Amino acid sequence: MMAASNVQAAEVIDAARLMAESTWEKRVLLVFAPNHEDTEYRQQDAVLKAIGDGLIERDMSVVRAFSSNRLSVDGKTYEQSTAGFYRQFAVQPGEFRVILVGKDGTVKLNRRSAVSDQDLFSLIDSMPMRRQEMLQGG
Question: CATH number for the 21-135 domain, one of 3.40.50.720, 3.40.630.30, 3.40.30.10, 3.40.50.300?
Answer without folding.
Answer: 3.40.30.10
